[in-house]
Amino acid sequence: MKILNIVGARPNFMKIAPIHREMRKISAIEPLLVHTGQHYDEKMSKLFFEDLNLPEPDVYLGIGSGTHTQQTARIMLAFEEVLEEQKPDLILVVGDVNSTAACSLVASKMHIKIAQVEAGLRSFDRTMPEEINRMITDTLSDFLFVTEKSGLENLKNEGISDNKVFFCGNVMIDSLVYFLEKAKESSILSDLEINGDPYMLVTLHRPSNVDVKENLEKLLKVFAELSSQLKIVFPMHPRTRKMMDSFGLSEDADAIDNLIITEPIGYLDFMQLMQNARLVLTDSGGIQEETTYLKIPCLTVRENTERPVTIEVGTNILLGSDPENIITAANDIFAGKMKDGSIPELWDGKAAERIVKILKVFAGTNINLKDKLIKFYE
Ligand code: UD1
């Protein structure tokens, strides 16, 4: 069974790594790695391949940046040729980035089966490009692997047949579990001269936060206020860097004492920063999940989340972008008033194992056979 595992952007790499590793253990499966090149910088891509022990991609499309339509269309044109040449039995996509949706569309038109890992998540906010990507990919997929129970509910409400849906856990957490000890060897804390200091870790890259000058300004004011109490480490996404420069805000940021702005940081260094942080402030999806697993307080600067389990069970707090709310929530954490989180069901480091086991059983057969398998996860 030939399977093309697709990656494109930074959050895809740690999701595909455990799946690709698991597939390579099985002689009946020939996994190939396809990188669309949606993210292409050394620090957004290559560093992650190294940290995650991912092999060089078998196919690299070199798509690069552009408007959503340009990027999606370029991926589709290039990926059609890959499918014509490789003729896989199945493609496997992860997450919700433009590469995920673009490759799914092409495969479905060519009658090639699709497995979607991280299916069913919904923010119910169609202004988010990721929400559109999720809906397209879920609709087209033959295997939908779900990370949390809200995903099962959402897919059911959208009329997607239960026969195709599998609750398997979270592959992003697989990577975290697998690399946690190795991450502890990272020298990032001493490199940034924050060894032993309490600090807040920040990531921001959502268009709703960083593409609007007033919103970025408000967040800088929050940092100025909080930086009197602790250091703030802010590895800056290229999109955020570009917007800060174009709004003329980079000097304001540099003027804030205790605000340490860095280039994007590799996987192992970032895990080390996250597991030692006093709190994390973010608008990322994956970081809400990783902080929940690590039981580190997380303040999410968004109006909604497609990962409600991180709030219901985990340490995540959804705050919106009101500066007062953010400052109050951070002060509560400094005062020791923290959520007591626990780890969501099946986030145990074995999601990829379950996924590959299911693909091995079902691929090439009638997937309605699911009804006949009783004890799947044993
Ligand atoms: C993409 C994903 C988002 C994910 C994020 C993680 C979509 C719709 N968005 O957003 O879901 O959370 O990745 O990082 O797929 N750039 C570089 N170097 C790079 C990559 C990007 O400089 O290696 C710059 C480019 O100027 C580009 C901008 O960042 O225009 C945005 O990149 P893009 O891939 O369009 O979206 P992200 O904001 O990274």
Task: Give a short synopsis of this structure.
The protein is built from 17 helices and 13 strands. The protein has helices at residues 10-23, 42-51, 68-86, 98-109, 129-140, 149-157, 171-183, 188-191, 207-210, 213-226, 238-246, 250-254, 267-275, 286-294, 309-312, 323-334, 351-362, and strands spanning 2-7, 30-35, 59-60, 90-94, 113-119, 143-146, 165-167, 199-203, 231-235, 259-262, 279-282, 298-300, 316-318.
* H/E element sequence: EHEHEHEHEHEHEHHEHHEHHEHEHEHEHH
Bound ions, cofactors and other small molecules, one mention each: uridine-diphosphate-N-acetylglucosamine
Give the strand line-up of the largest sheet. 3-2-1-4-5-6-7
Based on Cα principal axes, name the global outline. Answer: globular
What is the strand tally? 13
Structural class: alpha/beta
| Alpha-carbon Rg, integer | 20 Å
Helix content: 40-55%
Mean pLDDT: 95
Tell me the strand percentage band: 15-25%
- State the distance separating the first and last CA atoms: 24 Å
> Sheet with the most strands?
7 strands, parallel
Which residues sit in consecutive blocks of at least 5 with pLDDT less than 50? Answer: none
Number of helices: 17
